[in-house]
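Here is an idea for our session: we take a single protein and study its fold together. To get us started, please write out a protein record for me. Once you have written the record down, we can walk along the chain together.
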Amino acid sequence: MIGGFYRNAGIIQTIQAYRFGIIFPRGEDDSPWGEAMDKFEFALGKLTVDSNYQHIEPQLLGFRTLSDELANAISGDIVLFAVGYVLMISFCCFALGNNDLVSSKKLVGLMGVISVILAVVGGIGLSCALGTPITPVTQIVPFLALGIGVDDMFIMCNSLSKTDVRLPIEKRIITGISRAGVSITITSLTDFLAFMVGTSSR
């Protein structure tokens, strides 16, 4: 496939773009042939990056191109990832805190974000123990878990603040969690189903 070409007297003189494809039966990723194809594509991609032609700029589009680009983009945002969590901790402590040391919930906001971090680490560790491959899409999970977890924390704190302060703390927690449990359960189930549907696509 060619594009942007110039023809003179029926003969092509210049070409701005030229595309050709090589099709191989890949098979399963963990098969010997799949591993060999991964190595071949990696070597071809490195050859493309290291090429230094004067009038040609090669570009590679392969089976792993999209996943590799996603991995590079996410891996390059580690600093932003850490800054995002620090900002979220600061926001939670500011939003839930006040000057009253008794009713202030700054530690609740801090522990809410820390619980999300522990959940992400535990989930990735369990996936690795079960042999589940870590894909570039999996690397987005910490950001999604942070949003979902912090949202649930604010819902529970809001439900707890609406309970009668004259009740014992155990009764207040039971009442608050019973009110917030429905919305948290529904959002958690919908997120779980959405991720399960996502795992069925490649």
Q: What stands out?
A: The longest helix spans residues 169-199.
